[in-house]
Structure formats: structure tokens, C-alpha cells
Design brief:
The protein is 65% helix and 0% strand. By secondary structure, the protein is mainly alpha-helical. The longest helix is centred in the middle third of the chain and has 25 residues. The two termini are 15 Å apart. Keywords: Cell membrane, Membrane, Transmembrane, Transmembrane helix.
Length: 327
């Protein structure tokens, strides 16, 4: 999800021509899935796809649908292949649009149509935001996904064919309230925090995603794990509902924020590590506020806390002499 392409996957020896062959496009799709967590690795993307299908066939199929449509849209409209499309930077918002909409609306032909339309709109919005944000050295992150999905779930109740019989997605605390934590809440919640980036609430699916991140690099996997734990501990310290913490709802925005602020957009130093920790804590704290703000549409927090916190922390970097942008 970076504003510039990640370094090429060392496992691949092929070049990326301006006019790609079919195999080049096939490689790009898993990379688009991997870019949800800032990775441009084909192998990480394939592990992520396995995780989605383990979570449920519908998540794998609709995630692939969104990724393919978004990537193809960007390519057909002429977005730079080597700089943007090939590293997967045009696909990841489509991935999240596909997974989120099938979660909220269930498996229906109407959901298929909405994922296609949403992925196309997300591709256009990605380019628009890039034009606006690049002069300020700000990445789009998952903002296109957040905007498209939020608009759809806000407008959904007005359309019978969309909302009638929709699956919904109430938080776990709706049926299991209380703040008393168990050991299971802690360890499962940490892994779930990694999986909830893709709306997955099974701890073993989170483990598979974490394996994919370790495939990209040991530091990448460690940062995601620790940041998810920081988000969970922040929610616990503030008295969040135990069931929501165990489901990873306070960890995934922190996991993304930690990855963004330590190594992806900001150079790795002891000071930037502290900066990333503060960002992860902030993202967890903002999660409840955004959820309450969006309660009218089911409290769908999405990745808004991660987007808002990361933008603020990146804008602030020029004022801090001890923190440097990566690259």
C-alpha cells in the first residue's frame, strides 16, 4: 500500500514490460493481495490467498474478484505497469472491497455486481487520491477501500435488493458482553488482530497470514505480531469488551499502523520503533471512536483508524529531526 513500488521480489527473475504478458498479470494478482499488508511478494500473496480460502471459500473468491477487477481497471485505463500495477499497488483495495462486501451482504449475485462496481470505483479513487496526496508524500493506504465500502453500507438500507436478507456483522460483544479477559482472549486475539486486516476472526487463519508476513521477512512478521498485541493490550487497559478483544477488533488497525510506521514509510531506528508503538496505541484508541461514529451503519470501523493515524504521523515527520522517511 505504499506510494512507491516496493523492491522487486527476489524470488522472481523476470522483468516487467510496459505491455505485460498473461503470466505477468497472473503474478500481479497475488501481489495485490499481499499489498494489503504492504508486501509485494508473490509468495506472501499466495499464502494470504490460502488464508482467505481457509477462512471461507467466499472470502477467497470475492477477494480474488475484487483484486482482479481493480488491477484490470487500472491497467486498461493506462496506469503505469512497472511502477504501480506490477507491484500490486492497484489491487489491494479491490481485495478488501471484495472480502468486506461478501461479509456484510452475503453470497449473492447482487454482491458480485457490487464488488465489481466497487472495485472499479476504488481503482479510479485510488488514482485520484494519488494525484492529490503524492505532492505531500502521503500514500493512499486503504482510504479508497474505506470510502467505497462506507458509502455502500450507508446507502445499502435504502435499496431492497441490496439490504434485504443481508448477513450483517455485529461485534462479538453483542452476544457476549463483559470485560473479564481470559488467557484465550489474549493469545487468540493477538493472532486474530493479524487476520482481521482481512476481516477474518479465526485465530488459525491469523496464524497463516502471519506466516505469509514472515515469508516477506522476519522483521515484517514480528512487527505485525507485536503491533497487534499492542492494540489488544491498549483496548484491555482502557476496558474494552473482552469478546471484541479476543476477536482481534482492536489489533488489526494497530498491526497495519505498526507496519506502516516501522520500515515501510519510516526508516528503521530505535526512535522510529517508539514512534510506531505510539501510532499503534493511537490506532487502537481511535477504533472505538470510529466504531461509535459509524454505529448508525452497524459500527463498521474498517481500516479508518489506521488510515487517519498513519496520515497524521507521516505528516508530522518533517518536524522531527530524529525520524526519517524510508527510501
Amino acid at each position: 500500500m505504499s506510494s512507491a513500488p516496493a523492491p522487486p521480489d527476489p524470488a522472481e527473475q523476470t522483468t516487467h514490460p510496459e505491455r505485460p504478458r498473461g503470466l505477468d498479470f497472473l503474478r500481479t494478482v497475488p501481489k495485490g493481495v499481499a499489498q494489503v499488508d504492504f508486501q509485494s511478494s508473490l509468495w506472501t500473496g499466495l499464502v494470504f490467498l490460502v488464508a482467505l480460502f481457509v477462512g471461507g471459500w467466499q472470502f477467497g473468491v470475492f477477494g480474488l474478484l475484487g483484486t482482479v477487477v481493480a488491477t484490470l481497471t487500472a491497467h486498461l485505463f493506462g496506469v503505469s505497469w512497472p511502477d504501480r500495477v506490477s507491484p500490486g499497488l492497484e489491487g489491494f483495495c479491490g481485495t478488501l472491497i471484495g472480502v468486506s462486501l461478501v461479509l456484510y451482504l452475503d453470497v449473492r449475485w447482487m454482491t458480485v455486481a457490487l464488488v465489481v462496481v466497487g472495485a472499479i470505483a476504488g481503482s479510479v479513487l485510488t488514482s485520484a487520491l494519488n494525484v492529490l496526496l503524492t505532492p505531500y508524500r502521503l500514500p493512499t493506504l486503504t482510504a479508497p477501500f474505506c470510502v467505497i465500502t462506507t458509502v455502500m453500507v450507508i446507502g445499502g438500507p435504502s435499496f431492497h435488493r441490496i439490504w434485504a436478507g443481508h448477513a450483517g456483522a455485529a461485534p462479538p460483544s453483542a452476544t457476549a458482553p463483559g470485560t473479564a479477559m481470559t488467557w484465550s482472549h489474549f493469545w487468540q486475539g493477538t493472532f486474530n488482530g493479524v487476520g482481521q486486516v482481512f476481516f477474518q476472526n479465526k485465530w488459525y487463519v491469523g496464524v497463516i497470514f502471519l506466516v505469509g508476513l514472515f515469508v516477506s521477512g522476519w522483521m515484517t512478521g514480528l512487527v505485525a505480531f507485536v503491533s497487534s498485541l499492542i492494540g489488544l493490550l491498549t483496548g484491555w487497559a482502557l476496558g474494552a469488551q473482552a469478546a471484541d478483544l479476543g476477536a482481534g477488533l482492536y489489533g488489526y488497525n494497530s498491526a497495519l499502523t505498526g507496519l506502516a510506521l516501522f520500515g515501510t514509510f519510516i526508516a528503521v531506528t530505535p526512535v522510529s520503533a517508539a514512534y510506531a508503538v505510539i501510532g499503534a496505541v493511537s490506532a487502537a484508541g481511535l477504533t472505538a471512536g470510529v466504531g461509535n461514529l459509524f454505529r448508525v451503519v452497524g459500527g463498521h470501523t474498517l481500516t479508518w483508524p489506521f488510515v487517519l493515524v498513519t496520515w497524521v504521523f507521516l505528516v508530522a515527520v518533517p518536524m522531527f529531526n530524529k525520524i526519517k522517511r524510508a527510501g
